[in-house]
Amino acid sequence: MMAEHIGRRRWAIAEGYIPSYSNGPEPQFTSHETACILNTGDAPARIAITVYFADREPAGPYRVTVPPRRTLHLRFNELEDPEPIPCDTDYASVIESDVPVVVQHTRLDSRQAENALLSTVAYPAG
Fold first, then answer.
1. Pairing of strands 32-39, 91-109
2. Which of 4, 17, 29, 78 has the least CB density, counted as fewest CB within 10 Å?
3. Do you know which SUPFAM superfamilies this protein is assigned to (predicted)?
4. Which is it for the CA torsion 26, 90, 70, 66, positive or negative?
């Protein structure tokens, strides 16, 4: 049975911030921003991420692939090519895919012992 693609090809996450320190065991409690990308179709999703800043030119594209009928929880902290995303810096991102995917944004802020977790669906831009 063929799986159906759901979602969109372009998504935006208008806010991002990676603290430079964390509280608790690593890697579970490392403060991070995550794009959870769901590919429900039968073809791999080739993803390009561009990161925008308030005071400099964008970085990217960062390229990843999400296999068919799989999910990828991608920590922005772990993106390195073409450059790491700086800590303690406001940023936003645009995620583009060659097939429809669903993107959810999650943040864990563990700078305090009382952790903060937020999650929301990214903006489906197209």
1. antiparallel
2. 4
3. Hypothetical protein TM1070
4. negative
Question: Using an 8 Å Cβ cutoff, are 49 and 12 in contact?
Answer: no
The H helix count followed by the E strand count for the chain is 0, 8
**How many Cβ atoms sit within 10 Å of the Cβ of residue 80?**
9
Token representation of residue 71: 């999910």
Instruction: Report d(CA 69, CA 63) in Å as an integer.
Output: 19
> What is the residue extent of each domain of the chain?
8-124
Backbone angles phi, psi at 92, to 5 degrees: -135, 165
Q: Please report which confidence band the pLDDT of residue 105 belongs to, taking 50, 70 and 90 as the band edges.
A: confident
pLDDT at 112 over 70: no
CATH class name, domain 8-124: mainly beta
Is the C-alpha dihedral spanning 17, 21, 24, 29 positive or negative?
Answer: positive
